[in-house]
Structure formats: structure tokens, C-alpha cells
Amino acid sequence: MTTNFKTPTAAARGLGSAKSGTGHHIKQRVSAIALLFLVPWFLYAVIAASRGGFDGATVWLAQPWNAILMILTLGAAFYHMRLGMQVIIEDYIHKAGMKQGLLILNTFVCVGLFTATALSVLKVWISAGL
Amino acid sequence: MSGSEWTDPRPMSPHLQVWKWHWTMASSIFHRVSGVGNYLGALLVSAWLIALASGAEAYGAVEAVMLHPVGQILLFFWLVSVLFHLANGLRHLIWDGPKAGFDPKVASMWSIVNFAFGIVAAAIIWSLATNLF
């Protein structure tokens, strides 16, 4: 396995194929480490919050720590989701136009849902006036 | 493809159809499948939070969907998907960081444990959530 598959130009530049793979890898791992702690809390939280219907869930989400952890979970999860789905699209969709379109859609969905859900949490928290 | 015409010396990426199913391969592809499942589940979670901020009427509509048998089945599969992805993701971090668990036998056994964890932990959490609260 001593064959060098790099073209001379690639070897001279010393960068990977897309110049951003390492950064993507690290971002995916760092958000994974955050989610390792946040997801177990989140599963407990959603079950606890949804027991008491609308009123119970509102009171629950109005607790500062619950609101803070929920927004952190949403941020880490949507970030991690966007990175993961990006790789899946890049792996399986090769049609020009379709690929770029789906990558943009993926970003819009994740950023849009993060904004909508984070503002929802803030609204419930602030409305409660705690 | 006849195979013999292949002259490119670069290693060819193995395709899903020509892989023999084994545990590490299964945990690898199901990591991706469960990632997509978690993505879809996140849409449901988003609907739940947005409805909570929108008021009692919107919340009631989302709650009705989640408590419907079909919604309950989807939520259970989503829980299995999240827990498997969590366990298998932890293994990825251990592979990348301490670089432990690469021995084929250990890796296969660990894959089985991850699948088992996803299903068993989901069943335990589901049972606690429906009985204890």
C-alpha cells in the first residue's frame, strides 16, 4: 500500500480534496460531544413536560434551566443534523443543480427550524414572567 | 460491470450491493439511517415546541397527533433511532479519540450491544414514561 494516489498539484498544495473535510469532521464531533449530554436530558425533559398537557408543558418550559438547556439542545441538534444530512446528500446525489438545491434546502430547514423553535422557547419563557 | 476492464489503480469504494452483511457494516449503515430518522423526528419536536408557543388550540392538535396510535408508533421508532444513534455515536467518538475497540471481534460485539441498547433502552424508557409518571 505504498502507492501515492495524489496528483503532483494536490501534493504540492497539501490540502484535501475539498479543503474543508477536517473542519467538517471536527464540527460534527464537537456537536456530538455536546449532544451526548444534552440528548439524555432532552428525552427525560420531553416526557416530563408533555405529561401535563398544554398548561404543564408551559409551566415546565418557563423554568429558566429548562429553557436554557432546551435552546442549547436545539442549537447542537440542528447544527449536527445539518452537517450529517449534508454528507448524505453529497454521497448520494450527484446531479448538478439537484445536489446544490438539496444542500441549500437542508441549510434553510435547519436554520429555519432552529430560529422558529428557539423563539418559541423564548416566547413561552418570557410570557410566563418568571 | 465485468471487472476485468477496471484499470484505475485507485481503491474503489465498496458499494452497498456487494457488501456481505455483518454487524459492523450494519451498525455503520444504520447510523446513517437512524440519523435520517432523527432528522424527521426533529420536525415533530419542532412542531411540538412551535405549537406550545402558539397557544392551547395548536398544542391540542399536535398532542392529538402524538397520542394517536400511529403517532405513538412513530415516536417509539424515533426513540429507538435516537438511542441507537447516541450509542453508536459514542462509539465513533471512542474510535476517534482514545482509538479503542478496533479489534474485529470487539467491534462486532460492540455493534450488537449498540443495537440491543437502542431497542432495550427505548422499551424501558417507554415503559417508565407510561407507567411511573
Automatic annotation (TrEMBL), chain A:
Keywords: Electron transport, Heme, Iron, Membrane, Metal-binding, Transmembrane, Transmembrane helix, Transport, Tricarboxylic acid cycle
Subcellular location: Membrane
Xref: InterPro entries: SQR/QFR_C/D, Succ_DH_anchor, SuccDH_FuR_B_TM-su
Subunit structure: Part of an enzyme complex containing four subunits: a flavoprotein, an iron-sulfur protein, plus two membrane-anchoring proteins, SdhC and SdhD.
Pathway membership: Carbohydrate metabolism; tricarboxylic acid cycle
Keyword Electron transport in record: yes
Pfam families assigned: Sdh_cyt (PF01127)
Superkingdom in the source lineage: Bacteria
Job description of the protein: Membrane-anchoring subunit of succinate dehydrogenase (SDH).
Main location: membrane
Gene3D superfamilies hit by this protein: Fumarate reductase/succinate dehydrogenase, transmembrane subunit
Protein name (record): Succinate dehydrogenase hydrophobic membrane anchor subunit
NCBIfam families for the chain: succ_dehyd_anc
Renumbered residue ranges of the record's region Disordered: 1-22
TM stretches of this protein: 30-50, 62-81, 102-126
Topology relative to the membrane: Multi-pass membrane protein
Swiss-Prot/TrEMBL cofactor(s): heme
TrEMBL record, chain B:
Keyword Membrane: yes
Keywords annotated in UniProt: Heme, Iron, Membrane, Metal-binding, Transmembrane, Transmembrane helix
Domain of life: Bacteria
Primary location: membrane
CDD domains: SQR_TypeC_SdhC
Segments traversing the membrane: 29-53, 65-87, 107-129
Record membrane topology: Multi-pass membrane protein
Cofactor: heme
Family matches, as InterPro entries: SQR/QFR_C/D (IPR034804), Succ_DH_cyt_bsu_CS (IPR018495), Succ_DH_cytb556 (IPR014314), SuccDH_FuR_B_TM-su (IPR000701)
Localization per Swiss-Prot or TrEMBL: Membrane
Keyword Translocase: no
Family label: Belongs to the cytochrome b560 family.
Subunit-structure text: Part of an enzyme complex containing four subunits: a flavoprotein, an iron-sulfur protein, plus two membrane-anchoring proteins, SdhC and SdhD. The complex can form homotrimers.
Function: Membrane-anchoring subunit of succinate dehydrogenase (SDH).
Protein name listed in UniProt: Succinate dehydrogenase cytochrome b556 subunit
Organism expressing this protein natively: Henriciella marina
